[in-house]
Write the structure tokens for this entry.
Amino acid sequence: MTATQARITPSIDQLEANKRVLQRYLDEIFNARNYAAIDDIVHPDFYCEPPSFHVPWRFKDFKEGVPKFLAMFSETKWTTEEMIAERDLVAGIFEFRGRHTGESLGIAPTGKEVRFRVNFIYQIKDGKIIGTRKLNVNHNVDFFTAMGLPKPPGFVHPSPPGYEA
């Protein structure tokens, strides 16, 4: 290994640390609903690209939106099916299960059991999540359709380039 490769290739310990950041994100924020942990786990320069949401999310959007999203569900459980780390990226698959029992984002509760998978790539910087790209089922399916729920009022889902419906 050259000196340059050593500088840009993270150690196994660093790759494992990046995976632990992501698992903590899932366990503390999404499963335990410990929203105070957002500041410790999510970088202030956070950015989430569509298609998960109809507009890009920044840190403030994440901090406000995640509690509203999770308020829609009871009996929730997020699990990690796969997780792989390379450079400053962590990729894998999450599975979500829950029951849609709460009203939020303009969507009335349906009582439906919801189950879906999310394919993701997260970027880690300074021990925090700074960016994410997620795909739900396929490129033309937004988060709400993937869950079998109605879309919030005014929701318009853009298709990524090359995937127009």
